[in-house]
Amino acid sequence: MPRSDDYDISKSIDLKDAVSGGSQQTSLEGFLEESSQAEQKINTDEVLEVYNFPTEELSRIEGITFADSVAEEVTDYTHGMHTYPAKFVPQIPRWAFRLAELDRGDTVYDPFVGCGTTMVEARLCGLDSYGTDISPLARMMTEVKSNPLFPEDPARLKSCTRKLLSNIRNDTTEEELTDENEYFNPPINWDFWFPEQAIADLVKIKRHILNFDPPVEVSEQDRELLEEFYLINLSSIVDTVSYQDENQIKVRKDDGKFEDGLPETVDLFEKTVEKNQRGAVEFAKKCGGDGLFANVVGEDARTQAVEENSVDLVVTSPPYINAIDYTMAHRRSLIFLDFFDQESYKEHRREYVGMTERAVTKDYYDELRLTGYDPIDEQIKKIFQKGERKDKIRAFILYQYFTGMEEAFESLDRVLKEDAYCVIVVGDNEIRNEYIPTAKYLNSIAESVGFDSVTNFKHYYRKVQLQTGRRSTGGKIDYETVLILQA
Ligand SMILES: C[S@@+](CC[C@H](N)C(=O)[O-])C[C@H]1O[C@@H](n2cnc3c(N)ncnc32)[C@H](O)[C@@H]1O
Asked: CA end-to-end span of the chain, whole Å?
């Protein structure tokens, strides 16, 4: 189904090529020079599946010796449980594990963990992992995807699902969509965004999940994880039964979406759970009893959440400046699943590195704020001085992004062991017709915080469908840069 994560880079990377390596190294000077060639657009159809490996030395990473089987496809095991904008493919963290020559039981950390790709893959590869994300929905997905459910007997999940579905189907009560119904935390303008039947069915499913009494004996930990598993499945269908145009990242209503009839919400939930439980059972069979941990810790990458000097590798993709509004992408789930009410949701939007324009109020953008990094500040000033309100807002967004990333790097430098690698995957941007060489800037911020820049390279993808609606603000992203830093 085409969805907002069409931007997924999996579409073009030939990962076999990636593993066998290539020699198209981009030197740092070359990279910096190239990055400064503003608006140079790459014809990605011609570039095709290029995945440049940085140096001879770094392409020694053949074969995983500490795991017998890992995900071959981007949706294997629990990877495909929920769509997520701009998630990376599992092969990227796996490549980084090889780069760092990790041993079984070593520790990986992803401070912008999103839907948990790094942690799922770490677990499959025999590694301990930590992850942080500002979004409670992302944290819940990651928890569910990277921890085995019923590790002693994964098939128990199937009996639970049978019982849950039969409870839902046998319940013929009409759901009251009023304030008195404690399970109805309506997303903003719900009656504009959902057919009434769809929201009533969603509320009924939620009520059954939150009151579910499993037919098998379960530990407290499994009970919690089971509930979260079902809630994530519910979240994954919320937009499908709403009028949201699922081909858009931006919020956009598609009035004709249900011209051929509204999908039956309970049927859709059933299909989704059945698909996802196959992956969850496979994951639990592989990882149950492995003695490893996958811990979601902390919320904000800018605040240290992991013990100092304890991490063997960081691999992460930080947010894109002004390109993907995660709170908008997930706002219906965030509210419907009770993470926020409408007021606290507004506040939550300000906590993101790469805060969305909608969340920037006058107090933030009215005065010129600078980062202390000359080239970045030159660009901030240039945009601010264009003088319109939206220029000032975007100047603030740049300031907020790079100062936030500086704090995140400081924290990463503390938690990484000496000489450990930190792999950052990031795209460049265009803001108000200004090309922003984000990767280059992050590289110099990391260096000034104390990292050594080992090398970097770009990977290109064939086609990007980062549809941002009528007002495209984030600019096209035709390639991403992989920065390899060392603590
Ligand atoms: C590009 S996505 C990461 C996707 C991830 N690699 C995956 O495969 O799912 C960036 C993530 O950064 C998170 N984020 C934004 N601000 C943050 C902050 N201050 N601390 C932690 N995470 C943050 C967003 O919620 C989003 O999940």
From this structure: 41
Low pLDDT (below 70) residues in the chain: 1-72, 249, 460-478
Distance of CA 113 from the midpoint of ligand 1 (Å): 5
Q: β-strand 479-486 against 416-427: which pairing, if any? A: antiparallel
Q: Residues lining ligand 1, CB < 6 A? A: 84, 86-88, 112, 114-115, 117, 132-135, 138, 300-302, 317-319, 326, 352-353
Q: Are 379 and 401 in contact (CB under 8 A)?
A: no
Q: Report residue 173 as tokens.
A: 């009560």
Domains, the chain, with CATH or none: 4-138+307-328+341-486 (3.40.50.150), 156-287 (no CATH)
Convert 203-220 to b/e letters by CB count within 10 Å (16 or more is b).
bbbbbbbeebebeeebee
pTM to 2 decimal places: 0.86
Give residue 472's Cα distance to chain centre: 21
DSSP 402: H
Q: Specify the 3-state DSSP secondary structure of 224.
A: helix
